[in-house]
Amino acid sequence: SKQELENQINEETSTLKNLEIKLDRYDKSKLDLNDKESFISEIKSAVKIGDQCPICGNEIQDLGHHIDFDSIAKRQNEIKEIEANINTMKSNIAVHNSEIKFVNEKISNINIKT
């Protein structure tokens, strides 16, 4: 029914807003992760074990595990997932808006005939 479609659109719009807020928080809390990863690689090539880390100040014990690339990759995947969910919601909303438009046209045709 038209009311169900409108309710569904309202729910999807609310979900979309929440996803966009979540994505915005990620955007604000990160440098571009790809840039960060290349920046880290540059730093790693410029330092050696025993040097002081230019980021945290600790003595570098191991170049391989000093930076957590897994957490960077995890955040990249979370961002991609949120972006995919946003696109799905936008698509669903567009479909339901089209359905409502169709229902409204039917209603308007019925009103014209009566």
From TrEMBL:
Q: What stretch or stretches form a coiled coil here? A: 2-36, 72-99
Instruction: Indicate whether Coiled coil appears among the record's keywords.
Output: yes
Matching Gene3D superfamilies, A to Z? Helix hairpin bin
In Swiss-Prot or TrEMBL terms, this protein is called SMC family ATPase
Which residue ranges traverse the bilayer?
A: none
Which UniProt keywords are present, listed alphabetically? Coiled coil
